[in-house]
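Mods, move this if it's the wrong board.
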Amino acid sequence: MKTYAFSIILSLLVIHPPAYSQSKSDTVEFKIQKKFIDRKMAWYLNVTGLLMNTGREDFFGVGGGTTVEKKLWNSSSISASLNLFHVSHDLWFMNNSSGYTSLNLDLNYRYYLNLKNRMRTGLTGNNFNANYIVLAPYFLFFYKPYRSNSIQWDFEKGEWIIKTSRKIELQPYLKVGYGIQRSIWKDLYVDINSGFQINQLPDFDDPFSLMYLNFNLKYIIK
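Not the wrong board. Structure tokens:
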């Protein structure tokens, strides 16, 4: 009898394991897209370009560097960028161009205009993936292999004569603009802004002398 009862209990334990035992089962993992991750801070490596003019000459710079951006509140941020440029310098009134090196320190305050709406409609998380207005003081440190000391017309040769010298120069600017920043693939962002800049008293005969265009390709590393 005892042997029979023991056999029944043993068979029940085998057929119905105790409640605390755990069986293996397949699990499904959901990966959140990077653009939906909430971020208070971002650190980027960036390739950048800057196009501007002063009324008499064009500046076109292409380079690279790094940017750190930190949230102040949900819809605003501050950031600092340091980029090394190769600058192409063209005078409008004559066929003369040259290249030189520029170090750009850029301090940004951004207000993201449609971030809350994009979060509400499920297009992004609480991060930096939205349209914005920007107020930014920035500084260009130039090393110029040449600097125009004087320009005069040579009536005999029929051409401009430029006297030049080498110089290291600092130019401060203040820019106000409108921009778009979007996540385009995993950790890759595109950031374009354009607007008006103030350096010195501009040539008001040409309103385009106040304009700039800045474009960035950013890879987020943290």
